[in-house]
Protein backbone atom coordinates (compact mmCIF):
# COMPACT_ATOMS: atom_id res chain seq x y z
CA UNK A 1 0.00 0.00 0.00
CA UNK A 2 1.06 3.59 -0.34
CA UNK A 3 0.08 6.87 -1.83
CA UNK A 4 0.25 6.85 -5.62
CA UNK A 5 0.74 10.60 -5.93
CA UNK A 6 2.56 13.52 -4.41
CA UNK A 7 1.56 17.14 -4.00
CA UNK A 8 3.92 20.01 -4.66
CA UNK A 9 3.91 23.07 -2.43
CA UNK A 10 2.20 24.99 -5.25
CA UNK A 11 -0.55 22.35 -5.47
CA UNK A 12 -1.07 22.37 -1.70
CA UNK A 13 -1.26 26.17 -1.77
CA UNK A 14 -3.80 26.05 -4.59
CA UNK A 15 -6.00 23.55 -2.72
CA UNK A 16 -5.71 25.66 0.44
CA UNK A 17 -6.88 28.73 -1.46
CA UNK A 18 -9.74 26.71 -2.99
CA UNK A 19 -10.99 25.60 0.42
CA UNK A 20 -10.69 29.06 1.96
CA UNK A 21 -12.34 30.84 -1.00
CA UNK A 22 -15.23 28.37 -0.93
CA UNK A 23 -15.87 28.90 2.79
CA UNK A 24 -15.47 32.68 2.55
CA UNK A 25 -17.87 32.86 -0.41
CA UNK A 26 -20.43 30.98 1.69
CA UNK A 27 -19.90 33.21 4.72
CA UNK A 28 -20.34 36.34 2.60
CA UNK A 29 -23.27 34.93 0.62
CA UNK A 30 -21.42 35.38 -2.68
CA UNK A 31 -22.36 33.23 -5.62
CA UNK A 32 -19.33 31.99 -7.52
CA UNK A 33 -20.06 31.54 -11.25
CA UNK A 34 -17.57 28.68 -11.60
CA UNK A 35 -15.02 26.90 -9.47
CA UNK A 36 -11.56 28.37 -10.08
CA UNK A 37 -9.40 26.01 -12.14
CA UNK A 38 -5.74 25.32 -11.49
CA UNK A 39 -3.35 27.55 -13.44
CA UNK A 40 -1.46 26.01 -16.37
CA UNK A 41 1.70 26.06 -14.28
CA UNK A 42 0.21 23.26 -12.16
CA UNK A 43 -0.62 21.09 -15.15
CA UNK A 44 1.74 18.11 -15.10
CA UNK A 45 1.38 14.47 -16.14
CA UNK A 46 -1.08 12.68 -13.86
CA UNK A 47 -1.61 15.95 -11.98
CA UNK A 48 -3.33 15.08 -8.68
CA UNK A 49 -5.46 18.22 -8.90
CA UNK A 50 -7.15 16.78 -11.99
CA UNK A 51 -7.55 13.22 -10.66
CA UNK A 52 -10.70 11.98 -8.91
CA UNK A 53 -9.05 11.35 -5.54
CA UNK A 54 -10.83 10.87 -2.23
CA UNK A 55 -10.49 13.83 0.13
CA UNK A 56 -11.70 15.28 3.42
CA UNK A 57 -11.77 18.86 4.65
CA UNK A 58 -11.60 19.25 8.43
CA UNK A 59 -12.30 22.42 10.40
CA UNK A 60 -11.21 22.70 14.03
CA UNK A 61 -11.87 25.46 16.51
CA UNK A 62 -9.77 25.62 19.70
CA UNK A 63 -8.44 22.14 18.82
CA UNK A 64 -11.98 20.68 18.79
CA UNK A 65 -13.70 19.34 15.69
CA UNK A 66 -16.00 21.95 14.11
CA UNK A 67 -16.78 20.23 10.80
CA UNK A 68 -15.45 17.43 8.64
CA UNK A 69 -16.86 16.19 5.35
CA UNK A 70 -15.26 14.02 2.74
CA UNK A 71 -15.40 11.27 0.18
CA UNK A 72 -13.44 8.04 0.48
CA UNK A 73 -13.45 7.68 -3.29
CA UNK A 74 -13.21 10.72 -5.55
CA UNK A 75 -16.02 11.45 -7.98
CA UNK A 76 -14.65 14.60 -9.59
CA UNK A 77 -11.26 16.29 -10.03
CA UNK A 78 -9.58 16.91 -6.68
CA UNK A 79 -9.63 20.72 -7.03
CA UNK A 80 -13.42 20.67 -7.47
CA UNK A 81 -13.90 18.15 -4.69
CA UNK A 82 -11.97 20.29 -2.19
CA UNK A 83 -14.12 23.30 -3.13
CA UNK A 84 -17.35 21.37 -2.47
CA UNK A 85 -16.11 19.58 0.64
CA UNK A 86 -14.88 22.80 2.27
CA UNK A 87 -18.30 24.39 1.92
CA UNK A 88 -19.97 21.21 3.17
CA UNK A 89 -17.66 20.98 6.21
CA UNK A 90 -18.38 24.62 7.07
CA UNK A 91 -22.11 24.73 6.46
CA UNK A 92 -23.59 21.24 6.07
CA UNK A 93 -21.98 18.92 8.61
CA UNK A 94 -25.11 17.60 10.39
CA UNK A 95 -23.27 17.47 13.73
CA UNK A 96 -22.82 21.25 13.85
CA UNK A 97 -24.60 24.49 13.12
CA UNK A 98 -23.25 26.44 10.13
CA UNK A 99 -19.88 28.07 10.68
CA UNK A 100 -20.01 31.79 11.54
CA UNK A 101 -17.64 34.51 10.41
CA UNK A 102 -16.44 34.99 13.99
CA UNK A 103 -15.65 31.26 14.30
CA UNK A 104 -13.93 31.25 10.91
CA UNK A 105 -11.49 33.93 12.06
CA UNK A 106 -10.23 31.52 14.77
CA UNK A 107 -10.64 28.22 12.93
CA UNK A 108 -7.97 25.92 11.56
CA UNK A 109 -8.38 23.99 8.35
CA UNK A 110 -6.81 20.71 7.20
CA UNK A 111 -7.09 18.91 3.89
CA UNK A 112 -6.61 15.15 3.63
CA UNK A 113 -6.10 13.66 0.18
CA UNK A 114 -6.64 9.92 0.22
CA UNK A 115 -4.74 7.13 -1.42
CA UNK A 116 -6.42 4.00 -2.74
CA UNK A 117 -8.78 2.14 -0.42
CA UNK A 118 -7.56 -1.43 0.11
CA UNK A 119 -8.89 -4.45 1.92
CA UNK A 120 -7.28 -4.94 5.32
CA UNK A 121 -7.48 -8.68 6.05
CA UNK A 122 -4.91 -8.54 8.88
CA UNK A 123 -5.68 -5.85 11.50
CA UNK A 124 -2.31 -6.63 13.13
CA UNK A 125 -0.68 -4.76 10.23
CA UNK A 126 -2.55 -1.50 10.88
CA UNK A 127 -0.15 1.29 11.82
CA UNK A 128 -1.60 4.07 13.96
CA UNK A 129 -0.91 7.41 12.32
CA UNK A 130 -0.31 5.88 8.89
CA UNK A 131 -3.53 4.05 8.07
CA UNK A 132 -7.01 5.47 7.88
CA UNK A 133 -9.75 2.88 8.35
CA UNK A 134 -13.20 2.09 6.99
CA UNK A 135 -15.41 -0.56 8.60
CA UNK A 136 -18.62 -1.88 6.99
CA UNK A 137 -20.94 -4.47 8.50
CA UNK A 138 -24.67 -5.15 8.54
CA UNK A 139 -25.55 -1.91 6.79
CA UNK A 140 -23.41 0.20 9.12
CA UNK A 141 -20.16 1.96 8.31
CA UNK A 142 -17.60 4.14 9.99
CA UNK A 143 -14.44 5.90 8.86
CA UNK A 144 -11.49 7.50 10.61
CA UNK A 145 -8.71 9.49 8.95
CA UNK A 146 -5.14 8.44 9.89
CA UNK A 147 -4.65 11.43 12.18
CA UNK A 148 -7.68 10.67 14.39
CA UNK A 149 -6.14 7.94 16.59
CA UNK A 150 -2.99 10.05 17.00
CA UNK A 151 -5.04 13.08 18.07
CA UNK A 152 -7.02 10.89 20.50
CA UNK A 153 -3.99 9.05 21.87
CA UNK A 154 -5.37 5.63 20.86
CA UNK A 155 -3.36 2.49 20.32
CA UNK A 156 -4.29 0.07 17.53
CA UNK A 157 -6.90 -1.80 19.58
CA UNK A 158 -8.55 1.41 20.82
CA UNK A 159 -8.56 2.65 17.22
CA UNK A 160 -10.44 -0.45 16.03
CA UNK A 161 -12.85 -0.42 18.99
CA UNK A 162 -13.71 3.25 18.47
CA UNK A 163 -14.21 2.64 14.75
CA UNK A 164 -16.89 0.08 15.67
CA UNK A 165 -18.58 2.62 17.93
CA UNK A 166 -18.45 5.30 15.24
CA UNK A 167 -20.21 2.89 12.89
CA UNK A 168 -22.97 2.47 15.49
CA UNK A 169 -21.85 -1.07 16.28
CA UNK A 170 -20.64 -2.78 19.45
CA UNK A 171 -16.97 -2.85 20.39
CA UNK A 172 -15.17 -5.88 19.05
CA UNK A 173 -17.32 -6.20 15.94
CA UNK A 174 -14.22 -5.68 13.79
CA UNK A 175 -13.42 -9.35 14.60
CA UNK A 176 -16.83 -10.65 13.45
CA UNK A 177 -17.14 -12.85 10.36
CA UNK A 178 -18.35 -10.87 7.37
CA UNK A 179 -16.99 -7.52 8.52
CA UNK A 180 -15.32 -5.54 5.74
CA UNK A 181 -12.29 -3.63 6.99
CA UNK A 182 -10.41 -1.34 4.62
CA UNK A 183 -7.39 0.87 5.09
CA UNK A 184 -5.89 3.78 3.20
CA UNK A 185 -3.10 6.28 3.54
CA UNK A 186 -3.60 10.02 3.28
CA UNK A 187 -1.58 13.10 2.50
CA UNK A 188 -2.65 15.58 5.21
CA UNK A 189 -1.69 19.25 5.31
CA UNK A 190 -2.88 22.48 6.94
CA UNK A 191 -4.77 24.75 4.61
UniProtKB/TrEMBL annotation:
TM region(s), chain numbering: none
InterPro entries: AMMECR1, AMMECR1_dom_sf, AMMECR1_domain, AMMECR1_N, AmmeMemoSam_A
PROSITE patterns associated with the record: AMMECR1 (PS51112)
Pfam families: AMMECR1
Cited SUPFAM superfamilies: AMMECR1-like
Residues of the AMMECR1 domain: 10-191
Identification of the protein by name: AMMECR1 domain-containing protein
Native source organism of the sequence: Desulfovibrio desulfuricans
Amino acid sequence: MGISFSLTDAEKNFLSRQARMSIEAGLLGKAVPSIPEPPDTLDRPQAPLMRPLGAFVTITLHRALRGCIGNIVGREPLYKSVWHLAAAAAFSDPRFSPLTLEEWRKAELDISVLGVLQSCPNPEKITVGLHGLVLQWQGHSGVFLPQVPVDQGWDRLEYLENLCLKAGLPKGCWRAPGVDLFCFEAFVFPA
